[in-house]
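Input (structure):
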């Protein structure tokens, strides 16, 4: 029998009524904090999901009752995910706030979510398709990769119709693809999405060691790999990547500059480390210094500003299910999401 792509399914139908919403909430808990609206008890909650894994991306088709979705700074830090979600709604409406962006998504619209950024949405009863793409696969192909959060391609625009049609056909036919076919289709899909969202015109050159299209991602990867180094500063980056300070700042303008980006990544690494049981015996100061902070006092102030809790509180909360993230994070969606993590989370498990 010919091998096909991995498929996973979820449905609340076979569960006891009181277990249904909790099971759904646990399924999506890596990505969202889901809560039912006030007029829905959750005791008879219908939800169905089918996911197909292409190796480098995966596609999830979901139908569920109305609910609120929230992605907080704490959940972002606790999970360490760094992906884009590309969604098309077949039924239902989604009202969302994505930082300073507010919009309403209707059936046929394409919505982009950046999982490195917080958001709040309310969905009516809905049926949608979500394509999950790791940032390193898509960001180098985009002209403004940091400005995608909350972007909508309307259902009445040519580009919106192209992406929506492709995602619907991808979801409908994915189950019959072989792994080789799936890998080829996934690579083409990422390029199609990039072209429709605003491709970087320099992304055509595939031969240069540090091609211009990938320079932003290359710098970000370098930062993640050297967070512990006290030498990680703008001058180091300009010399490493042969660019001016102006060029470097331009790469991180939408994140508040390169220094702000470096500190944010160090804080997230610290949050992940503090939350990991393998580092429970390490002192907070040791973790802060190991992530590149010059002093524990400076780290503690920055941590509290970023997450609203102290490092000690974050460590204590990590041992109590449901405080930093919803409890019960088992299931294929959480496993597949974590499997697409970039190298930022490598090394959290002590050797």
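Output (sequence):
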């Amino acid at each position: 029998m010919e091998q096909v792509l991995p498929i996973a399914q979820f449905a609340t139908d076979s569960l006891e009524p009181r277990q249904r919403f909790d099971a759904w909430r646990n399924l999506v808990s890596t990505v969202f904090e889901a809560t039912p609206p006030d007029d829905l008890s959750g005791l008879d909650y219908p939800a169905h999901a089918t996911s197909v894994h292409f190796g480098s991306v995966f596609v999830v088709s979901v139908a569920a009752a109305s609910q609120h979705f929230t992605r907080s700074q704490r959940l972002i830090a606790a999970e360490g995910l760094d992906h884009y979600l590309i969604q098309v709604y077949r039924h239902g409406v989604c009202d969302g706030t994505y930082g300073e962006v507010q919009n309403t998504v209707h059936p046929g619209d394409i919505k982009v979510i950046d999982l490195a950024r917080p958001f709040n949405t309310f969905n009516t009863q809905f049926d949608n398709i979500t394509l999950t793409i790791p940032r390193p696969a898509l960001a180098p192909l985009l002209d403004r990769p940091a400005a995608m959060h909350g972007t909508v391609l309307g259902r009445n625009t040519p580009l919106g119709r192209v992406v929506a049609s492709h995602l619907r056909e991808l979801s409908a036919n994915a189950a019959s693809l072989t792994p080789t076919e799936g890998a080829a289709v996934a690579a083409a899909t990422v390029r199609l999405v990039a072209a429709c969202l605003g491709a970087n015109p320099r992304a055509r050159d595939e031969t240069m060691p540090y091609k211009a299209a990938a320079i932003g991602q290359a710098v970000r990867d370098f930062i993640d790999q050297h967070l512990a180094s006290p030498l990680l500063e703008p001058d180091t980056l300009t010399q490493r990547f042969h660019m001016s300070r102006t060029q470097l700042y331009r790469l991180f303008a939408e994140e508040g500059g390169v220094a702000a980006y470096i500190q944010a990544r160090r804080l997230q690494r610290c949050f992940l480390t503090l939350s990991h049981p393998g580092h429970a015996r390490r002192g907070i100061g040791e973790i802060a210094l190991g992530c590149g902070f010059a002093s524990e006092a400076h780290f503690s102030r920055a941590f509290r500003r970023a997450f609203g809790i102290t490092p000690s509180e974050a460590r204590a909360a990590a041992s109590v299910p449901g405080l930093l993230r919803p409890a019960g994070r088992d299931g294929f969606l959480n496993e597949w999401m974590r499997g697409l993590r970039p190298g930022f989370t490598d090394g959290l498990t002590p050797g």
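Notes: Residues 202-213 have pLDDT under 50 and may be disordered. The chain has two domains: 7-204, 212-319.
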